[in-house]
């Protein structure tokens, strides 16, 4: 770079993006800390919450909602299954498809995890007016849409 060329961190959009990335990373760390008594990590909670919301979805549908590959989901599900939090059942119409369900214990852990996550979010954002929270959310949805368009991808609903 020559001396007349500005550096990336001098640009407002770059600074904003770094702030968002840092906030996300720190929130994930705080959530991991707060979830530790449940012996689950944020990616586990993401799976459990999706099964809570969309009971009986397939592994493929779950991967789509989580914006990850099926192999990522396939590696994590056995851990949750061994802990007795989820179960896989065959699809009655298509024997090749496995449907995912929370167990009674899985539902309890999910509800507690959601309570922990909500309390953390409320604590962190309590000084931020609701209008600003909604504006931040709307801006991030626009970023998501732009990224999905850039990638030629219509993933979402997660």
What does this structure look like?
It is built from six helices and two strands, in the order ααααββαα. It is mainly alpha-helical and 158 residues long. It starts with 11 loop residues before the first helix and ends in a 7-residue tail after the last helix. The longest helix has 24 residues, at 12-35. 64% of the residues lie in helices and 6% in strands. It has helices spanning 12-35, 42-53, 59-66, 70-82, 104-125, 130-151, and strands at 86-90, 98-102. A two-stranded antiparallel ribbon has the order 1-2. The relative contact order is 0.12. InterPro entries: HTH_MarR-typ (IPR000835), Tscrpt_reg_MarR-type_CS (IPR023187), WH-like_DNA-bd_sf (IPR036388), WH_DNA-bd_sf (IPR036390).
Brief descriptors of the model:
mainly alpha; Arc Repressor Mutant, subunit A; two-stranded antiparallel ribbon; globular; WH_DNA-bd_sf; Putative transcriptional regulator protein, MarR family; DNA binding; Tscrpt_reg_MarR-type_CS
Topology at a glance:
Blueprint: H1 12-35, H2 42-53, H3 59-66, H4 70-82, E1 86-90, E2 98-102, H5 104-125, H6 130-151
Helix pairs in contact: 1-5, 2-5, 3-4
Instruction: Report strand order across the widest sheet.
Output: 1-2
Structural domain count: 1
Q: Average pLDDT across residues?
A: 91
Tally of DSSP β-strands: 2
Which term fits the overall shape? Answer: globular
The CATH architecture term is: Orthogonal Bundle
Strand content: 5-15%
Which parts are unreliable, with pLDDT below 50 for 5 consecutive residues or more? none
Class computed from helices, strands and strand pairing: mainly alpha
Number of helices: 6
Order of helices and strands: HHHHEEHH
Biggest β-sheet description: 2 strands, antiparallel
Q: Tell me the distance between the termini.
A: 40 Å
What integer value in Å does the Rg equal?
19 Å
């Amino acid at each position: 770079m020559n001396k007349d060329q500005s550096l990336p961190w001098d640009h407002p959009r770059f600074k904003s993006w770094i702030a968002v990335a840092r906030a996300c990373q720190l929130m994930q760390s705080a959530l991991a800390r707060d979830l530790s008594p449940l012996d689950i990590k944020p990616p586990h909670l993401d799976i459990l919450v999706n099964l809570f919301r969309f009971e009986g979805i397939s592994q493929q549908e779950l991967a789509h909602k989580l914006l990850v590959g099926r192999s990522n989901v396939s590696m994590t599900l056995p851990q949750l299954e061994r802990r007795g939090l989820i179960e896989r059942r065959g699809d009655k119409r298509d024997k090749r498809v496995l449907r995912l369900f929370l167990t009674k214990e899985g539902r309890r852990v999910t509800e507690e995890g959601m309570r922990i996550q909500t309390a953390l979010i409320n604590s962190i954002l309590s000084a931020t007016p609701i209008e600003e929270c909604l504006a931040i959310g709307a801006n991030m949805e626009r970023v998501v849409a732009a990224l999905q368009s850039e990638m030629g991808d219509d993933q979402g609903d997660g």
